[in-house]
């Protein structure tokens, strides 16, 4: 099944149980706009290579579109549309004044030199410039993009528009108007969501264990902040494999090891296991923080975690969800659990609009409060409607979208 159609399955369940106005449902089913661009880049060897990129704006009902830009060889228009749809729902669940957007380029950035990467980034910016902006569509980092790439986009966009408008992009370096606390924000939100889930399940975090799939931005901060909270992280992984230590891994030390060697594999004192084995560990929390479609009908039965807390977007397929429901595993869905990143991106935007910056403590305090509130809203809907947390999150999102649609006269 096409990933966009698959992504809409839990939303359709929410629409059914909450009896959402079918006109609102019809509008939400398709993105407002999706742009495909061709970006020619003069490579270091003198040849010209043409890359394909996208920017999708799923909804601007609640505010400007908001969402990251992904560089990956598997990017497709369907994937970008799906990610934009999830951003709409995520922003609505988090209570942010944003719609959803997402961008991507089909490229393996590891195969480009730094100069080629900068040229590709600037070319892509030129092509999407007509539809982005501080009050239109605000990009951010996603897989394989970072503060350096945001800096090139800001520089290019400033040249095109002739003005300095740092709020049109988030995830920037601090010296470019970035927010303190942004780098760790998505992982921090995953940990806050997991702790809230433990609370409702009466689990003491000091007795809890965790396995984290993916050790990039989201996964590494999830691991580190779990360690800070006294949760024993027994396994982490990356694209090269997984490592396991039943006594617990010091994720800060693993982070230093990755910075030196490029992988978690080989971390002193750990045992190498496969990614499949990591997903099947008997832990309190499994946090998939790598990419979509990792927990499927083929491996869901093997999962023994009590809580699956989704740092990645779309790591669980609908048939895996059914298995988890049957097994009584609580899934804290992506559109709730990984909303911490966009929440602090929102804080960055607010700080940019005001040109007034907050301390890291202030950012963390505000983020934690918003995450806990979002968790409570979703948990209460799950109880009210007798549905799982994913369907409940879509009920919260659809409720937030439908009323403004009605008042605007769209439905
Ligand atoms: P990243 O590129 O920094 O890290 C991805 C990590 O996953 C890397 O360690 C990579 O080696 C690993 N990985 C990839 N495929 C894997 C596999 N099959 N098995 C195990 N590990 C694998 O990306 P990121 O920014 O951390 O994003 C990860 C996920 O979180 C994506 O789904 C992204 O859309 C989502 N997300 C990111 C943010 C953010 O703020 N960065 C916010 C919300 C959601």
Could you characterize what this model shows?
This protein is α/β, with parallel strands linked by helices. The chain has helices at residues 3-18, 22-28, 77-94, 114-128, 147-161, 182-200, 217-228, 251-261, 275-279, 318-327, 334-337, 340-354, 360-385, 389-408; strands at residues 33-42, 48-59, 65-72, 100-106, 137-141, 209-213, 232-238, 241-244, 271-273, 285-288, 307-309, 330-332. The strands form 2 sheets. The chain has a 7-stranded mixed beta sheet with strand order 9-8-7-6-10-11-12, with helices on both faces. Helix 7 links the parallel strand 6 and strand 7 (232-238). The longest helix has 26 residues, at 360-385. It is globular. Nicotinamide-adenine-dinucleotide (NAD) is lined by residues 141-144, 186, 213-219, 237-239, 275, 289-291, 311-313, 338, 341.
In short:
By secondary structure, the chain is of the alpha/beta class.
Sketch the topology as an H/E string, one letter per element.
Answer: HHEEEHEHEHHEHEEHEHEEHEHHHH
SS field, number of helical segments: 14
Sheet/helix structural class = alpha/beta
Rg, nearest Å: 20 Å
Distance between the termini: 29 Å
Largest sheet: 7 strands, mixed
Helix content: 40-55%
Strand order of the largest sheet: 9-8-7-6-10-11-12
Bound molecules: nicotinamide-adenine-dinucleotide
If you average the pLDDT, what whole number results?
Answer: 97
The general outline is globular
- Strand tally is 12
Poorly predicted runs are none
Strand composition percent: 15-25%
